[in-house]
Each structure stands twice: as C-alpha cells, then as structure tokens.
Amino acid sequence: MIHSIQDCFHLMDRYEMLSHIRAHSVMVARVARVIARSLKREGMAVSVSKTTVGALLHDIGKTASLSTGGDHAEMGRRICIENQFSEVADIVGEHIKIKYYRPEAALSEKEIVYYSDKRVNHDQIVSLDERLDYILERYGGSHEVVHQRIRDNFELCRRVEGRLFGLLDFAPESLPQLAEREGLY
Q: Quick count: other Cβ atoms within 10 Å of Cβ 69?
C-alpha cells in the first residue's frame, strides 16, 4: 500500500519536521512528480504515488539528526519502517547516496528522488552545479577527502540525470517552470 500525501504531512508533524525542511521536501516532491509522471507517459514502470511519498519523506529524519548528529537518511529509513511506510524506506535511506547503482537496470523511484533532491537547494530549484557548490561549502569543510566524495556522488547524479533526460521530452533546465505548475493534490 502506498500512503497518501496527507499521511506524509501527518508523519512530518509527528516528527516535528522544521518548516524549512518541510518546504524543501515539498519542492523535491514537486520536481520528482514532474519526472515520474513524464517517465510514466513514456512507458516506464514507475509509480508516481511512491515517488511522491518517498520525496515528501526523504528528510523525515533530518530534524532529529540536527540534535543527534546521526545519519538522517538512515534515521529516516528507520522512521519509515517503524511507521509502516516500508514501501519508501529504501528511497529515504538512499536519497543522499545510492548504494548500488546499476546503470543497466531500469530507472526507479529511488533514482528519481535521489536526483530531485540534488536539484533543490532549500526550496528553490537549482542546477546540479549550484547545488554541488552549496553542499561542498555547507558539508565539505576543509577536508579534501570529503570534497572528493561529494564530487563523486554528484558525478553519479550527472549520470542519473543523463539517463532520465535521455528518456524525457524536456531538458533539465525546464524543471523550474514545470515544477511551478505541479501540485501535490
């Protein structure tokens, strides 16, 4: 069973998701829905509902992690399982970094949410380069090893972008206009 959007908002309230994280999650969901709906129109076997729920909840562990310092993706995965949102637990758990990316496999909701999250800085849709610069500055510190891991992850995201938009009839630069028109209901 795929939960409703309203169920997601209830879970956000239960876990006291901060308003700016909620705004980010809603925008990620709007971007993800544009991509999922378009892929579905192209005949891909993706669930728009599962993609939307996964995107809305991708940062469900973030508020708690701000005080504990824990891995918010893993915390979010556990929150999803504990609250019977198992259908999106892996999407939430791998929204920062996909563990086992297989370029020969069919694209899934996991790649859509992973990519969509990389395109949203706060609640604004930005390019991958802009988001990379922000992530490097915010989380990279002065550690070159961390910078390289972040760059490598964004290189994977660029490959995912290439696969996604190789199937779609619009360019990545069109996402801001398309997502602006995308509602969640």
A: 7
